Amino acid sequence: MSVSSSSPGLQENALYRLAAAGAVLLSVLLILGANGHFVAIWAQVMSEATALPRRLLLMLPGAVLAGTAALNILFSQPLWQARGYALTATLAGNLLTMLYLIYLLIQGVPGHPIGVFLALEMSFVILLVAIRAGMVWPARTETAVHIKR
């Protein structure tokens, strides 16, 4: 009687599900950040003394946060299903947002929580890059074992 394993096992990558859950959580925090930004600048944006280009520049950080949140929510279900296009789109959008937040941090906007949002974005981008690089976190392994008699 011999026991042999005919297949090494199939692995399901649970990092995709972690990324999908992280995308939803990050989206909630980004929406709250965008809302706080818009509340803070609303008086200046509505002022007649503020020129249109200045208004648009004031609204840009909030729009970037809200746009990234929408992108993350839009692709969270396909990311949960381990779709490659969702990983690529989510990684690209969050990478651009991270680079924009780095730019804002370098510019030195005093009194703004740019570092907090940059840390959140950077953590999420690291997770997405790890998945893209092939990191696998097996949730379960199905192994077929055949017994010969």
UniProtKB/TrEMBL annotation:
Keywords: Membrane, Transmembrane, Transmembrane helix. The keyword Transmembrane applies. The chain crosses the membrane at residues 20-44, 56-75, 87-106, 112-131. The keyword Membrane applies. This is Uncharacterized protein. It comes from Microbulbifer donghaiensis.
